[in-house]
Amino acid sequence: MPAIGTLIFAIVAIALLVLLMLVGKFFNLWLRARVANAPVSIPTLVAMWLRGVPNALVVDSRITAAKAGIPIDTDQLEAHYLAGGEINHVVLSLIAADKAGMSLNFNRACAIDLACKGTSKTVLEAVRTSINPKVIDCPQPDMGRGGKIDAVAKDGISLRVRARVTVRTNLDRFVGGATEETVIARVGEGIVTCIGSAASYKDVLENPDSISKLVLTKGVDAGTAFEILSIDIADVDVGENVGAKLQAEQAETDKKIAQANAEVRRAAAVALEQEMAARTQEMRALVVEAESKVPMAIAEAFRNGQLGIMDYAKYKNVLADTDMRSRIAGPSVGESGTKS
User: Fold this and answer.
1) Residue 175, CB-side half-sphere exposure with 13 Å CA sphere
2) Whole-number Å distance between alpha carbons of 309 and 327
3) CA dist 214 to 197, 211, 217, 227, Å?
């Protein structure tokens, strides 16, 4: 019996010691929360410690919210932390929204915070942008082409435009809404459409605000996480004459096509000339062949008695006379075909 009593006493002593150690470990947090009128019980602090939740962060966030008049339970903060959220950002965003008179509840703030996870944005930045609008350059300076949008009017003159878009975060559409890149792309598309529909680049230079009006009427902020407040044309430069350049390139292309067609026709003419020369040689060969048959025909006529010696003599005289006349007449015939 004394041994059992000693064992029970030892167990009780160890339990009391552990309890005192836990109380000592969390007493500072418990007292700080109690003094700040945001009480958190010791068992709750122990439970958070066992679940691996930084109880100091939860307590400090609860105290910050309580001092700002925003009631938040430790279970809500703990659940959001376990979901991978940033507790301090959520609390600070709720305070900022409350001070600005905006309607933002804890669940919406947590949803926005989780939506920002993995990006450079935070829920606190979203709320601040909703309170104080931010200015976005369109296009972004790091997008090349001199940080301006190139567009061509109907008269072929190009304009280089840089715009500044003032936006405000729409917290109701932040979760699932398109980002700044979509807003910049849509504004750039609207600028190109406006300049492209202008009859002359001078019309755009005279009224640059027509670009802003047209882009705003297109509702480019639909489906995005932002609300466009204004679009200001910061700079407009006159570029090159794209229409004249394209016409010159088209003329050069037409010239090359015409030269290619002429070369085809020339090659066809040369081929036809060669063909005609070949046919001429063929005809001459036929003539020579026919001439070679004349002596044979004469000999055959002699054998058959159809041609006498006197007839042959007359034939030779005619040939000689013809040859003489040809020799006499040949050198005296000019280019015009008349005798000199």
Assistant:
1) 11
2) 27
3) 11, 5, 5, 16
Predicted structure pTM score: 0.62
Q: 86: which residues sit within 8 A by CB, 6+ positions away?
A: 113, 122, 123
**Residues facing residue 224 across a β-bridge:** 178
Structural domains of the chain sorted by starting position, each given as residue range(s) with its CATH number in brackets: 2-131 (no CATH), 134-245 (3.30.479.30)
User: From CA 183, how far away is CA 148, in angstroms rounded?
Assistant: 16
pLDDT tens by residue, 62-114:
899 988 888 888 899 999 999 999 999 999 999 998 888 888 889 989 999 89
CB 233: neighbour CB atoms within 10 A? 18
Identify the residue whose tokens are 């301090």. Answer: 88
Element housing 163 (H / E): strand 157-169
339 SS3 class: strand
Tokens 């072929």, located at residue: 156
Q: Are the C-beta atoms of 78 and 51 separated by less than 8 Å?
A: yes
Query: Coil, strand, or helix at residue 229?
Result: strand
> What's the length of the chain?
340
